[in-house]
Automatic annotation (TrEMBL):
UniProt KW Cell membrane keyword: yes
Role noted for this protein: Claudins function as major constituents of the tight junction complexes that regulate the permeability of epithelia.
Originating organism: Steatornis caripensis
Protein name: Claudin
GO cellular component, one term: bicellular tight junction
Topology versus the membrane: Multi-pass membrane protein
Residue spans crossing the bilayer: 81-105, 117-145, 165-185
Origin organism lineage: Eukaryota, Metazoa, Chordata, Craniata, Vertebrata
Family to which the UniProt record says this protein belongs: Belongs to the claudin family.
A Pfam family hit: PMP22_Claudin
GO-annotated molecular function: structural molecule activity
Amino acid sequence: MVGGVLQITGLLVGGIGTVGTFAVTGMPQWRVSAFIENNIIVFETIWEGLWMHCIRQANIRMQCKVYDSVLALSPDLQASRGLMCAGSVLSFLAFVVAIIGMKCMWCAQRNRQAKGYVILTAGLLFILSGAVELIPLCWVANTIISDFYNPMVNTAQKRELGEALYLGWVAAFCLIAAGAIFCCFCRCCEKTRSYGYSAPTHYSTRSQHLHRKTESSYSISQYV
């Protein structure tokens, strides 16, 4: 019962993290224009993402344009593209492996060790995908904060942390939490199997002892 609850919880949390990872990868709100000092044009907001940059003006619909070249991006955004794509693939693969492991656990009761390995693989993939996702998020956030407090950077070029970064941190936390849940489930299964293996040994030893005791008493009575 507890194992089933852990599996369902891990799958739900991992699914939320997977969907969030795909959403963050496509969102343009990684860098948002900062309204500080002389930059007080609040009716125009600039968003910069991994694939496009957008300009949102008051009473006018948002206009977005895909980057003309990858070389036009800063190094942190260039690396974030590949890392976020890798994190998305890993999270999706972990989700699929987790579903396969759950189906195996519910449909069949034999070969539990192989099923445990499937669930453990899903947990490790979830943790790996969350770690891969944290790298570009923290890198971009560090660059934004460094440029914000750098007096050499023009005020119009300074940016603030966008909504995509906060959503990405939540998604990465969900992926790591899902991986930890699946790993804990495998740990519980290992303990259950070890208890299950030790019980028959104890029972057989006790049976042999009783059997020998019975034989010895029977021999004595025969002798008498």
